Amino acid sequence: MFDPFFTWLETTTLSLWLVESPSLFAFPGILAAHTVGLGLLAGLSAAFDLRLLGVARGVPPAAFARLRPVMLFGFWLNLATGLLLVLAYPTKALTNPVFYLKLGLIAVALVVLRAQLRVAHESLVSPRTKRLAVVSLVVWAAAISAGRLLAYTCTRLTVEYRCS
Amino acid sequence: MSAFQVQLEALLASFTNVAAFMQLHWSWPAAESLHFIGLTLLMGSIGAWDLRLLGFMSEVPVTAFHRLVPFAVLGFGINAATGAMFLVTFPNQYVYNAAFHLKVLCLLLAGANVLFFYLVVFRRLRDAVPGSPPPALARLSGAISLCLWITVIVCGRMITFFRPAICDPDGPVAFIADCIVR
């Protein structure tokens, strides 16, 4: 049903460049940047979770809240590179249910992170915040796994080709 | 390719039990997912620590932040184990791969930076007055660590694009990748 739309996306100049360019700064570089952004956003979020769960008690949670700009950098980097990766292979991502699962998990992780940052100034970590930290760790791990599994669960690579 | 690479490939290929396990249906994707979770744990905890070394959050005692380091070691351990599993399953995809060579070089340099940090920098950092800007060597070590771990991630992601193809020694050379001459 969406094939004409996918065909249009796949024949845009940018999509063709992403897929066909032999430059390491095209598809490979964007994929690498997406992984660096993952490390910064999910990684710092996980370190913050560990602090809320009682690791490194000497560090006030508010100190982690000051890493917010670095986490935001990871977020914007991955939104931009993620859009480019979808544009490179739109059929592959958009016809795979696991891709929507990944997006849903990331949305949950981000909502939880926002809630955690909002209470970071409190010196005593409430049981609710601790539960949120567990949810955050589990949801990030699931989102990362879902992202990794996209390569193995796709059925169509492009409008023309099936995933091998 | 050198004799060393050929010997290394043969040695890695001798772990046939691991290779057989990794070729079961979901072993490889599961190990990859774990490798990325380990990456996140390592990058997050060592990244926060490096930012502290660079002078972010300098009012927090450095010893308090140091409690995060075991989690970076855990992430590294997960990735060393899963990485070794990839390596012994398809050794020729790594032993002759330029991206993998650069990744290993950066890992060795990161290891040297850890030694430099604990032998030279840590003592000075602990003795520094809380709230004062970190010593220049601490900032240097933190910056080196951040750059190296980011390069390790990038090189790891590039391995796929530098996979050597098995090809005819007289045939055309594949783009980027070297041929494995049979």
Keywords:
heterodimer, A: 164 residues, mainly alpha, 8 helices, 74% helix, 0% strand, elongated, B: 182 residues, two-stranded parallel ribbon
Description:
The complex is a heterodimer of chains A (164) and B (182). Chain A is mostly helical and 164 residues long. Chain A has one domain (3-153). Chain A has eight helices and no strands. In chain A, α3 runs antiparallel to α5 and α7 packs antiparallel against α8. The radius of gyration of chain A is 18 Å and the shape is elongated. By secondary structure, chain B is mainly alpha-helical. In chain B, 70% of the residues lie in helices and 3% in strands. Chain B is built from eight helices and two strands, in the order ααααααααββ. Chain B has a two-stranded parallel ribbon with strand order 1-2. The N and C termini of chain B lie close together (11 Å). At the A-B interface, α3 and α8 of A face α3, α4 and α8 of B.
Average of per-residue pLDDT values of chain A = 95
Widest sheet of chain B: strand order? 1-2
- For the terminal residues of chain B, how far apart are their CA atoms? 11 Å
Major sheet attributes of chain B? 2 strands, parallel
Amount of beta strand of chain B: under 5%
Give the C-alpha Rg of chain A.
Answer: 18 Å
The secondary-structure class of chain B comes to mainly alpha
Percentage of residues in helical conformation of chain A: over 70%
Mean pLDDT of chain B: 90
Low-confidence parts of chain B, pLDDT < 50 over ≥5 residues? 172-177
What is the beta-strand fraction of chain A? Answer: under 5%
Question: Which of globular, elongated, flat, extended, rod-shaped describes the shape of chain B?
Answer: elongated
Shape of chain A: elongated
Q: Give the quaternary arrangement of the chains.
A: heterodimer
The structural class of chain A is mainly alpha
Number of strands of chain B: 2
Distance N terminus to C terminus of chain A? 22 Å
User: Order of SSEs of chain B, N→C?
Assistant: HHHHHHHHEE
Strand tally of chain A is 0
Please give the domain count of chain B: 1
